[in-house]
Write the structure tokens for this entry.
Amino acid sequence: MKIFLIIPSFNEGSRLHQTINKAKKYIAEKNIIVVDDGSRAPESLPKNSKATLIRHQLNLGKGMAMKTGAKYAFSQKADAIVYIDADLQHNPKYLPKFKKLLKTNDLVFASRRPSLNAPMVRLLGNKLASIYINILFGIYVSDLLSGYRALNKKAFKLLNWTSPRYGVETEMVARLGKYKNKLKWAEFPIETIYVNKYKGVTIIDAIKILTNSIWWKLS
């Protein structure tokens, strides 16, 4: 399979460089795509890097950065794509596991194991969100908000998310629930790494996601 790695990035700087340097041990560097989502100081690639850098002039949100990267990858004949965050919260050592599972699945989720290093409110919120989406859409992914995930071209076309920002991970699972008879998926556990415990989905983001879930159910 021809697999591309997509790294949405916003103001990550040196962390992005470290992510690329670690990832290229497991995937061809020419198949790594960085989408700079309007960073204040434009992101750069490591010296002599063979990765591709795509830049949004304005910050459009993670969901749109993920779409930009996917469209480019599939235009380059990718069979599947893996998303990884640029802030070192996802260990690239799991990329071979993604490759293996993508041979028999349309989507693959890397779910973080519960950890005492994570804020309790985040652990409980994530678990409750997983239960809520399961009730609404009949699909249970234990770590709903993990951005470390993969999908093939078929799944990308069917899911067709519209969330521009952090709601994208939840919307992907919700839409998977609607197409669970057409798509195969797998989930595997990974270690929990928090570089910044308070970065990511806020209470306001969570309220928006829960509100939007009703629209996803009806659309």
